[in-house]
TrEMBL record:
Residue ranges flagged as DNA-binding region: 46-65
Keywords: DNA-binding
A Pfam family hit: TetR_C_29
Superkingdom of origin organism: Bacteria
Ranges of biased composition (kind: Basic and acidic residues): 1-11
Descriptive protein name: TetR family transcriptional regulator
Organism classification: Bacteria, Pseudomonadati, Pseudomonadota, Alphaproteobacteria, Rhodospirillales
Region feature (Disordered): 1-25
Domain HTH tetR-type as annotated: residue spans: 23-83
Length: 230
């Protein structure tokens, strides 16, 4: 089948006469496609396998997403949309700057550890130099709210005297996700090299506390320290 061929709308009823749920079907396809792409990358993933996972005809997948690239881009967008949507439920504006920052760090740590497919699909797209993500019209808007949240926490922290080090929201966001992301993206190689289990509950809790304290101590310290090169 030509991936770019125009597809006819799927029937509103299945072969058994059950009325279809287009939105539900689309969500299910995206959910399983995200797993497939995370496991096999763009090149290794197959539309037939995604169809088998969802019991959806290939024709219907093409109708919703156009082609394999369209499905992959949509899966990437959904991966970002999911984490950003959950971040909006943290109610960070109602907490002190210190507690808000701790909650954001804890959430990032837990989400990435519990959603390894998120880390893997993003890592896979980095292997592609983000060539498919560049096709997205929504990815920048989808991710804009996290920088707004970090900015508000920082502004309150500076105004209340809780934070001393001046940082750009983007730099702080990068610092947080870097500390949390590496544990998941490199857990297998790291575990083999150092004979440890990064999924162990006690180890995870210790690392979460370390990252939380690292971020807070950095924000509460001065920009200059003795011995720092000018």
């Amino acid at each position: 089948m030509n991936d770019n061929a125009r597809q006819e709308p799927p029937s509103r009823r299945s072969k058994r006469g059950r009325k279809l749920d287009p939105d539900g079907t689309r969500r299910e396809i995206l959910r399983e496609a995200r797993i497939e792409f995370a496991e096999k990358g763009f090149s290794g993933a197959r539309i037939d396998d995604i169809g088998a996972r969802t019991k959806t005809a290939k024709r219907m997948i093409y109708y919703y997403f156009g082609n394999k690239e369209g499905l992959y881009v949509a899966a990437l967008e959904q991966a970002y949309a999911d984490i950003r949507a959950m971040e909006t439920t943290l109610e960070l504006d109602h907490l002190s700057p210190e507690l808000a920052m701790c909650r954001l760090v804890d959430f990032t740590f837990d989400y990435e550890q519990e959603n390894t497919d998120f880390v893997r699909i993003i890592s896979s797209e980095n292997m592609n130099y983000a060539q498919y993500l560049k096709q997205s019209r929504n990815v920048k808007e989808l991710n804009s709210n996290i920088l707004d949240s970090v900015s508000r926490i920082l502004e309150r922290g500076y105004a209340e005297g809780a934070f001393r080090r001046k940082l750009r929201p983007l730099d702080l966001h990068l610092m947080i996700i870097s500390l949390c992301y590496y544990r998941v993206s490199n857990m297998h190689t790291f575990s083999v090299i150092f004979d440890c289990d990064l999924t162990d509950a006690e180890t995870s809790e210790r690392h979460k506390k370390m990252i939380r304290n690292t971020i807070l101590c950095y924000l509460c310290s001065d920009d200059e320290h003795p011995g720092t090169d000018a």
